[in-house]
Amino acid sequence: MRPQTLPDRRRHERLCAIALLWLLAGGILLLSTLVPARTPSLGWAPTLWLVVTPMAMLLALEPSLPRRLLAPARARRSGYRRRH
After folding, report:
1. What is the DSSP string of 4-15?
2. Cα–Cα distance between 60 and 3 in angstroms, integer?
3. How do residues 18-77 score in pLDDT, each as one tens digit?
């Protein structure tokens, strides 16, 4: 019997949510200094696993995400330039 799989869109949304939570938790850990960004024994590995890896995962899942996030700022900036 074949295992039931989630529809592609729903699975995609769950993976994005997991990556965002991972990034949020990693950022909180690094900013609260519970986990140092660099250690003598591990080097930059904590930062890699807590920030860079979830960001890479998000970019792989949603390549247009940075463009969508920056669109409102670009619209405000271009509107500001037109007025002045």
Report:
1. P---HHHHHHHH
2. 26
3. 999 999 999 999 999 888 999 999 999 999 999 999 999 999 998 888 788 788 877 877
> What is the band of 78 on the pLDDT scale with cuts at 50, 70, 90?
confident
Which amino acid, 45?
A
- Work out the angle between the directed axes of helices 53-61 and 8-31 (0-180°, nearest 10): 150
Secondary structure (3-state) at 39: strand
Give the start-to-end residue ranges of the domains of the chain: 8-83
Tell me how far apart the alpha carbons of residues 29 and 23 are, in angstroms, rounded to a whole number. Answer: 10
Residue 54, Cβ neighbours under 10 Å: how many? 20
d(CA 8, CA 23): 22
3-state secondary structure of 43: strand
Enter the DSSP assignment of 4: P
Contact (CB, 8 A) for 29 and 35: yes
